[in-house]
Amino acid sequence: MKFNTKLIHGGISEDQTTGAVSIPVYRTSTFHQHKLGAEPKWEYGRTGNPTRHSLEQLIAEIEGGKYGFAFASGSAAIHAVFSLFSSGDHIIVGNDVYGGTFRLINKVLKRFGLEFTVVDTRDLKAVETAIRENTKAIYLETPTNPLLKISDISEIARIAHVHNLKTIVDNTFATPYNQNPLALGADIVLHSATKYLGGHSDVVAGLVATADKKIADELFFLQNSIGSVLGPDDSWLLMRGIKTLGVRMRVHQENAQIIFDYLKNNAKVGKIYYPGNPDGEGYEIAKKQMNGFGAIISFELKDGLDPKNFVENLKLIDLAESLGGIESLIEVPVVMTHSAIPRDIRLKNGIRDELIRLSVGVEDSEDLLDDLKQAFASI
């Protein structure tokens, strides 16, 4: 099946009991076991649920893996993946990651003895130099949040495999529509499915996929033991959202290109971060490993212009955290999504106070442009 067909018919697209083309929501905490100790397929809602299982099969298939796992949030998915490692293990992490990932690493995981080194994963030499005797994995986002930096997944995976390390890629911004890290050599791919996969700002979820049975067995144990599983109602919503990922992404990206063309010629914009920028540092790598450039654009206002005034004067585009919904969302990372990162570290990583992140929705592009123009006119 081609990708867009797989979104609709992949995984378990028909209920095996009734033939329903929309998998039912199985709201049950437990299941009748007809024989004692017979190891039934379904026994307890935390361990497995038919609705959640259908979603997990779907994410595995569209990411080119064999095993999928659904969690109560993207952060829960990230926590489960990091829980594959033990006290004393060392992990290399990209220097431009979601603020919640930074918080999880520095406020939680380090307390349990995990060790981390932060590097710019675009610099392959820096990645290799950071490898220690106790290094177990390389964790990265590409494109990153919020600066849209592009790292070469296949090259990082090559380095990782030479040193017997795991490569873990957060694919939230690219989505499986644009990028498949497992096919590029990664061992684990994860998503904040709250974003593009759900697509309608009505569900909070995290997804993980892998093709490695040993990793899958360990993740299943952790998912069941830690217990931060996705409920059946949210699993159903997420499957419904995934069915339209292809048609949504086409419009998201068409609108993003139009807005990028507008912003790059705007005298009040100092710098633009967008994978589809031909003058951008990661453009050639993005072309190589992505099928499209996504629909997130970050930009800095010129010095002296106030991001607060700009975002508060928008009338159509919503000032809100999150991204990837059908509606356009805008935020100021230093106040919102990345406020957990100390200012000196933010500045070192290039996240300036003037930075604004725009998630371009599927509204009519003329309406979005009109809203941006009137907001720029107000500052």
Helix content: 25-40%
The helix-and-strand class reads alpha/beta
CATH homologous superfamily label of the largest domain: Type I PLP-dependent aspartate aminotransferase-like (Major domain)
Shape: globular
Point out poorly predicted stretches: none
Describe this structure in words.
This protein has 379 residues and is of the alpha/beta class. The chain folds into two domains: 3-243, Aspartate Aminotransferase, domain 2 (3-Layer(aba) Sandwich), CATH 3.40.640; 246-377, Aspartate Aminotransferase, domain 1. The chain is 36% helix and 15% strand. The chain has a seven-stranded mixed beta sheet, sandwiched between helices. α4 links the parallel β2 (90-94) and β3. α2 packs parallel to α9 (232-243). The radius of gyration is 21 Å and the shape is globular. It starts with a helix and ends with a helix. 46% of the residues are buried.
SSE arrangement:
Elements: H1 3-9, H2 50-62, E1 67-71, H3 74-82, E2 90-94, H4 99-108, E3 115-119, H5 124-129, E4 135-141, H6 153-162, E5 166-170, H7 175-178, E6 188-192, E7 206-210, H8 213-226, H9 232-243, H10 245-263, E8 269-273, H11 283-289, E9 296-301, H12 307-312, E10 318-319, E11 329-331, H13 343-348, E12 355-359, H14 365-377
Helix pairs in contact: 2-9
